[in-house]
Structures are given as structure tokens and as C-alpha cells.
Amino acid sequence: MSVMWSGRFQKELDSKVNDFNSSLPFDCRMWEEDIAGSIAHAEMLSKQGIISSEDGDKIIAGLKQIKADIENGLLKFDMNAEDIHMFIEGELTARIGDAGKRLHTARSRNDQVALDIRLFLVKCADTLTELLNKLNNTLSIKASENTETVMPGYTHLQRAQPITMAHHLSAYIEMIKRDIERLAQCRERMNISPLGSCALAGTTYPIDREYVAKQLHMNGVTQNSLDGVSDRDFVIEFIGVMSIIMVHLSRFSEEIILWCSHEFKFVELDDAYATGSSIMPQKKNPDITELIRGKSGRVFGDLMTILTVMKGLPLAYNKDMQEDKEAVFDAYDTVKICLETIIPMIRTMKILPENCRKAAAKGFINATDCADFLTKKGVPFRTAYKITGEIVAFCIENDLTLETMSIEQYKNYSEYFDNRIFEAVNLENCVKSRNTTGGPSPEEVKRQLNK
């Protein structure tokens, strides 16, 4: 099989080596970006007088027709081609003749692939941003419906203090907001054109790199030709951002898994987003969230892959860098399908307020408020803490809660107690009184959601 770089070689490439060397099975995803970059490059070559305007027009028309034929299914990828760049250039040359051979003037596959992957990942970043915004909108709607749903807040997975379901969901909204910000910053850095760096040392042709970048709606051009072709920081950063997204999705999935269990029973998943058992007819399993939790490890593995690939590479381009695409494509595909699946699952998820309130009442999560009641009357906090601990022990022993104790029982522990203690330990009041910025009170959470 003849290849475009065969002039130096006396033998054809071994078929097994060709299969090993080929990246077309996965980099064919970038065909649209490759054509866009080539059109912008051809426009620049023609504008600068490096190729004739006639050849430029032929190249651009040929590339547009190839694009249309791929979109319409009329042109299939030839898996014998080494990569998507060689496939498109070969197809172009077969269609328009010598003019097609002039397209690669003042360009290398090194800066060409660096451009393609940047353009492709910018598009991926936009898709993920849209999905993350949809996720936050879904969480916001669900939270707005549950600003009065009292539930236990946890530390060490032990009931700790009263909050609302809206406050809990809002914590994930904050996480996703940071993910969106990180993605935007990553997009800004990756949307820089390396085209014109050529193999590693630029070119002697009078090219206009800034023109190409402008045609492709990029933010500028790389400032060092060696770095332009060998940089994959943007790939590492993009998978890093996706890894953090998966951390957040996995944490939320873990909570849903717990909340679906009969030990919690705070939520019930819609039948369309749960599965059954092959042997136990009573089961309703949260498989989607379990898969998301598991797939987080896959994305973390993709991050480790690209870090390991890049860690020992001398400048400039090395074939090792071909391994970046499968890792980043896999990470992107995984995050995308996780987001596409969890959004409707959350939207259809039913929250069970009565169960949330019951768990809050049994957990003595208003104990801090009981201690604070005494502290506000002048009792030292450590003394108030000890008294409240003794009261909790009494309640456990006698199957009582802080809300169902009598005032006489309270006074057995301190003369500072009066009937206002029942207002202080009422769970709804406990939540409403925590109205500092970022707190769980319904009014504060509504302010957060509106913001």
C-alpha cells in the first residue's frame, strides 16, 4: 500500500504495522474539523499568493463537496488510510488533481492534528456546558419544590443537623456552577490556533496565521512553534475538568443510591430510570446511578492515560501523542452519556417529604439548638453541651425526642429551661433560624436559587 510519505522509502509498509500505526478508526471523528481547518488554510494560502486563486477555489470547492458527501453518506472512510488527514487530502487530490497536492503547502500533519483536536474539543466543551446548565436547571426546579422539606444533614454519614432537601440539592448546584466555570476557562485556553507551527520550526512561506485563526473563530495563535505542535495541556486540562464533573456526579449518585434504600427512603426513582432483579420480584435497583458511580473510574483512568503518555516526551511531536484521542474521546463520551441520563432521572425522581421529616425527628439533629438555648441564657457552652448530651441519652432510653419531652423533664436537667425550648427545638424553626448567607433556611435557599 502506497502512502503519501513514501518517497523516502524503498518498501511498502507492512500491513500489520499499518494497522498498528493507523489512527483513522478513532480520529475520523474529527473529519469536520479537519475540513474546516483545511478550508481556512487554503483561503490563507490563496490570499497570500502562495497558491493561485484558481487552485484555492478548486481546493475549497472540493473540500466542501467532500464534506457534503460525508454528511450524506455518499463517501465512506477508507480504513486503509493512515489517518483522517491523509484520507481527506487523498480524496481531494483524486477529485481535483494537482491542485489538491498544493493544500499541504506550509503545513504539517503535526500542526494540522493539533488544530483539529483543539477545534473538536471546543465543540465538546460547548456540548457539555449546555448539558451542565440543563442539569443545574433541573436541580433548581427540584430544589424550589422542596424548600420546606426538612431532612437530616449528615457528617460521617451520621445525622447531624436539620437542613432542607432544597439546601442539599443546592450544594450540587454550586459544584456544577464551578464545573461550568472550569470548562469555560479550559475552552478559552484550548481555542488557540497552532496552525503555522508546521512540523516544529514554522515555515519560510509568508503565511498569515492570525487570519486562519480568525476564520476559525479562535482566540489567537500559539506563540512558539515547538510548543504549538507538542502541547497537549489542553487535553489534560479538559479530561481533568471532566474528571471533576464525574466526581460530582458520582457523589450525587451515591446519595441517590442511599436515599432509594429502605433504610433511608427519601426518594423514589421513576420506573423508567430503575431496573428490577432477575430473581427477586420486589427489587427496584438504582442501576443508572451505580453505573455513573462506576464510570467515574473510567474517566479518571483516561486522565491517567494522557498524563502518563505526556510525562516523558521530549520536544516536539512524538507518535505517542496519537494516544491522546482515544483517551479524551472516551472521557467525553462517558461524561456526555452520564449527563444525558441523570438529568431526566432527577427530573422524574419523587422526593418523599414525610420520610425525610421522620428521619430528622429521630436523629436528635436539633441537639445543638437545645444547647444554644441554654447558652443564650448565660450557660457556658461546654456545660450546655454536657446537659444536652445527658438529655439525649435520656430520650434514647425512654423512646422520646427533644420535641416530645415534657417541660418537667427538661427542668430536671436545668432550671434555665422554659416553654420556649419547644420553639427552639422544633425542626422547622431550627432550619428557619439558620438564615445566614449560604444557610439552609427556606428564605435563604430561595435567594440562592434566584441568584
Question: Can you offer a commentary on this structure?
Answer:
- By secondary structure, the protein is mainly alpha-helical.
- It folds into three domains: 13-105, Fumarase C, Chain B, domain 1; 110-357, Fumarase C, Chain A, domain 2 (Up-down Bundle), CATH 1.20.200; 362-450, Fumarase/aspartase (C-terminal domain) (Ribonucleotide Reductase Protein R1, domain 1, Orthogonal Bundle).
- Helix content is 62%, strand content 4%.
- The chain contains 20 helices and four strands.
- The chain has helices at residues 15-21, 24-27, 31-47, 53-71, 84-96, 98-101, 109-144, 165-190, 209-215, 225-230, 233-260, 287-310, 323-348, 353-362, 367-375, 381-397, 407-411, 421-425, 427-432, 442-450, and strands at 150-155, 158-164, 267-268, 350-351.
- It has a two-stranded antiparallel sheet.
- The model has no long low-confidence stretch (mean pLDDT 93).
